């Protein structure tokens, strides 16, 4: 009786209704089942790995020699090693967006909230599973890029014993994970895949490149998440306006935190 009264009091204080037996572990399992049962979210992580590794291998094999001659002393092999991220990240963005917006499109969001009425628990569980899948995807793609580059790039371009090699590999992992978190958070706010992709894709693939080319604007554009986060995957800066590698990661992490806070705030306050 006392326990039941305590649970009721806690529920009234937090404004959340908790179905008996609903736990974070159960919510995580439910989210994992959802991702595996939908073809798009099941195959997009694999598509991310294949596109990142595939484009990277092609660049390593056919572009490295010419790039070395063109750049001379400014040559940075790691620009080629992780070049596939520019293309493969599209699949990861789509994965994060569909993992959240898919329930709205299919009309299953109400049933999911009936099973897990605590919205914070529901959102955190979904974000956790998306982050975990993105982490595994990022690790596999980064290791594949690094090892493939060691085989295909000219001798001496990269070394598996050099700290720089693993710093940039780690940077790719961090970048992709934070990107997935940002995209998932944005989708919680916008709800539909069209609105989310319509905002994220131009911003990531077109907006930053265009803004960094405009004098007077590029000083601000360097703080955009993709521009800040990708710097850690290279040794040399492209221009004087770029952030240093780790400050860039910190800026992208702040974007991810802001996206999560916005997602939890908006999702908790609206009807669905």
UniProtKB/TrEMBL annotation:
Record keywords: Membrane, Transmembrane, Transmembrane helix
Presence of the UniProt keyword Lyase in the record: no
Ranges that cross the membrane: 43-63, 83-106, 127-149, 169-190, 197-217, 243-267
The name this protein goes by in its record: ABC transporter
Organism whose genome encodes this protein: Embleya hyalina
């Amino acid at each position: 009786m006392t326990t039941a009264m305590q649970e009721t009091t806690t529920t009234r204080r937090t404004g959340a209704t908790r179905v008996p037996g609903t736990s974070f572990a159960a919510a995580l399992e439910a989210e994992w089942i959802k991702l595996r049962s939908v073809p798009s979210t099941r195959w997009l992580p694999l598509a991310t790995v294949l596109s990142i590794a595939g484009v990277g291998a092609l660049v390593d094999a056919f572009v490295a020699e010419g790039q070395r001659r063109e750049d001379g002393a400014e040559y940075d092999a790691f620009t080629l090693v992780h070049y596939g991220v520019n293309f493969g990240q599209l699949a990861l963005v789509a994965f994060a967006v569909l993992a959240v917006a898919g329930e709205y499109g299919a009309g299953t969001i109400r049933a999911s909230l009936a099973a897990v009425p605590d919205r914070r628990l529901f959102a955190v569980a979904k974000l956790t599973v998306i982050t975990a899948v993105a982490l595994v995807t990022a690790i596999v793609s980064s290791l594949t890029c690094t090892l493939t580059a060691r085989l295909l790039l000219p001798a001496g371009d990269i070394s598996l014993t050099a700290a720089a090699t693993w710093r940039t590999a780690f940077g790719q992992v961090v970048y992709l994970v934070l990107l997935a978190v940002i995209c998932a958070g944005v989708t919680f706010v916008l709800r539909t895949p069209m609105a989310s992709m319509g905002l994220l894709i131009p911003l990531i693939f077109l907006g930053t490149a265009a803004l960094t080319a405009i004098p007077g604007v590029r000083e601000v554009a360097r703080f955009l998440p993709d521009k800040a986060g990708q710097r850690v995957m290279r040794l040399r800066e492209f221009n004087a306006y770029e952030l240093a590698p780790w400050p860039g990661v910190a800026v992208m992490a702040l974007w991810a935190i802001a996206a999560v806070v916005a997602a939890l705030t908006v999702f908790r306050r609206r009807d669905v």
